[in-house]
């Protein structure tokens, strides 16, 4: 029986649960550190983790998604976040986005956002992956809403959220740095909603 267990592990048959996700994150940090983003492959990361390569797409959607959580350490799963945000009226999308992002970043701690900023500033590939994340994330939302000028709207939404994070967690402007979340949602969400569905001319 022990031999069968060893064979199963060698064939990448780790159960597809939370332990698989954790193993992939740990393997990804090691492989990205050794080989960089371009040199790291999904197959090598999966082999290092002892799982099937299909588990990368299952848990993270892509190599970029895995990089985002393993290296950038975004405090959310992009696919779960998208599903959560699309659950509600279209005219309240802005409120859901601002509230969710603030809640997740507050829960992770401001130092996590500061680390993200350092990663993006000092690592070209990190900046590329972060841009890819925002582009994919907002493109899906905006296209689903049927809005025009998707690329511009995506950039505007990203600028609002990144700027919000910089002011709250890095520069720590008061009173925004210590404000409760709901007053910020009330103030910022209408702008995000306009970027999503309103007139931007």
Automatic annotation (TrEMBL):
Keywords: DNA-binding. It holds the Pfam family TetR_C_16. Residues 18-78 form the HTH tetR-type domain. Residues 41-60 bind DNA. GO terms for molecular function: DNA-binding transcription factor activity; transcription cis-regulatory region binding. InterPro entries: Homeodomain-like_sf, HTH-type_TetR-like_transc_reg, HTH_TetR, Tet_transcr_reg_TetR-rel_C_sf, TetR_C_16. This is TetR family transcriptional regulator.
């Amino acid at each position: 029986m022990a031999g069968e267990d060893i064979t199963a592990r060698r064939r990448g048959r780790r159960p597809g649960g939370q332990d698989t996700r954790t193993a992939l994150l740990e393997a990804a940090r090691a492989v990205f550190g050794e080989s960089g983003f371009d040199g790291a492959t999904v197959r090598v990361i999966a082999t290092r983790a002892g799982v099937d390569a299909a588990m990368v797409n299952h848990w993270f959607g892509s190599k970029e998604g895995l990089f985002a959580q393993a290296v950038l350490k975004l405090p959310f799963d992009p696919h779960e976040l998208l599903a959560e945000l699309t659950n509600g009226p279209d005219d309240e999308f802005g409120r859901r986005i601002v509230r969710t992002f603030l809640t997740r970043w507050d829960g992770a701690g401001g130092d996590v956002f500061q680390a993200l900023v350092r990663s993006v500033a000092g690592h070209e590939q990190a900046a590329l992956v972060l841009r890819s994340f925002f582009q994919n994330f907002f493109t899906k939302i905006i296209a689903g809403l049927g809005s025009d000028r998707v690329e511009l709207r995506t950039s505007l939404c990203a600028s609002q959220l990144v700027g919000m994070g910089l002011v709250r967690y890095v520069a720590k402007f008061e009173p925004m740095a210590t404000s409760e979340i709901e007053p910020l949602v009330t103030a910022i969400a209408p702008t995000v909603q306009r970027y999503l569905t309103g007139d931007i001319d």
